[in-house]
Amino acid sequence: MTNDIAAAIETALQRVSDAASLDEIDAVSGETLGKKGVLGGLKASLAKIADIEERKAVGRSLNEAFASVSAAIDERRQELIAIERAAQVAGERLDLTEAMDAASRGHLHLVTQAWQELEDVFVGLGFTVAEGPEVETDWHNFEALNMSEGHPARGEFDTLFIGHDEHEDAGDSGLLLRTHTSPVQIRTMLASEPPIYIVAPGRVFRRDTPDATHMPVFHQIEGLVVDRDISMADLAGTIEAFTQAFFGKGFTSRLRPSYFPFTEPSAEFDIRRPDGSWLELGGCGMVHPEVLRAGGVDPEEWSGFAFGFGIDRMAVMRHGITDIRDMYVNDIRFIEQF
Ligand code: PHE
Q: What atom of ligand 1 comes closest to residue 287's alpha carbon?
């Protein structure tokens, strides 16, 4: 019987280490330790041993056999549980890595690119970036900029007015979509004390029909400097420094006399390309004393200059785009070229 026990242990341990699943280990357990199992069967036949001492000895070694086989079964069961859990985790794993194919990666809008580069250049020249709302009051957009009601210059801005309810005529609310970034001049002066050196890029609106050179929604960048003893020479020097920083060496600028109600004297500024051709860029001038006053700045103590020009135009010009509308239709064949 001792031999039977030894053989049963050997077989059981072999089956335990061969078991590849929890089902198999359960089977080994039942067939070895269970009532009808091999060791269980041997236990039942203990009663047949007549000699008490021998029965005790065989009983002890049977108990030891049960203990060692069940310990082996427990150990293998823990191993199999760990293996099955790892397999389940691996099976449920989701690969969330995005396929980053450099060829299909997008890029910022051309106007956003020009906008950010303009900001960078002006920040490099010592300006900070300011902003104002797109829905403006008539006062900020016109009145405070020396264009009171009935001023003929108002007619040049095809303004989109805002009416709040259906009974109200558009315009009665005193609100409009800003037609230029110049109202940010007023807001900045009212919110801070000179010296002021800011640029204000932003979206502006005019009641224009889209064509190759116009969009009803476009972008401008405004500049405002208010300090002591600021002169037209500072304005010209700033425009020139900007031209070289943004367009590169070989580009120069010029001012041409012009008229804006909010600057006096006023000028348009042009950029001269290396090939000698000229490009009209924007308007500028010395801030009108009435405008300084509207911004709470004493014109006896402070003077300043302002400028404003279109960002969309810069973007089309740099990339040789012939129709400004192309930048807004989101045709992938167009976008992918940049
Ligand atoms: N606001 C003017 C425009 O939209 C441009 C401008 C800005 C002119 C500042 C002079 C000074 O046309």
A: 11
Considering the domain architecture, whether residues 213 and 324 belong to the same structural domain is answered as yes
Q: Give pLDDT tens digits for 245-295.
A: 988 889 999 999 999 999 999 999 999 989 999 988 999 999 999 999 999
Whole-angstrom distance, CA of residue 110 vs CA of residue 315: 6
Spatial distance between the Cα atoms of 123 and 53, rounded to a whole number of angstroms: 102
* Model pLDDT, residue 165: 67
Do 83 and 122 lie in a common domain? no
Closest ligand 1 atom to Cα of 145: 1
Q: Is residue 105 part of a domain?
A: no
| Distant-in-sequence, close-in-space partners of 33: CB < 8 Å, separation ≥ 6 | 39, 40, 66, 69, 70, 73
Identify any residues that bridge with 284 across adjacent strands, giving them in sequence order. 267, 307
Q: Is residue 309 part of a domain?
A: yes
Residues 79 and 196 reside in one and the same domain:
no
Distance of alpha carbon 159 from alpha carbon 39, whole angstroms: 99
Range of the domain at 128: 110-335
Long-range contacts of 270-276 (CB under 8 A, 24+ apart): 271/243, 271/247, 274/250
Q: Is 287 in the pocket of ligand 1 (CB under 6 A)?
A: no
* CA 111 vs CA 218, 314, 326: distances in Å: 9, 8, 12
| Closest residue to atom 4 of ligand 1, CA basis | 180
**Statement to judge: residues 146 and 273 lie in one domain:** yes
pTM over 0.85: no
**Ligand 1 midpoint to CA 221 (Å):** 9
Q: Does a structural domain hold residue 101?
A: no
Atom from ligand 1 closest to the CA of residue 223 = 9
- Edge-to-edge strands of the sheet including 161-162? 135-137, 175-177, 161-162
For residue 99, being part of any structural domain is answered with no
Q: Return the CATH number at 161.
A: 3.30.930.10
308 in contact with ligand 1, CB cutoff 6 A: yes
Residue length of the chain: 338
The answer to whether residues 223 and 76 belong to one domain is: no
115 and 87 inside one domain = no
Number of domains, the chain:
2
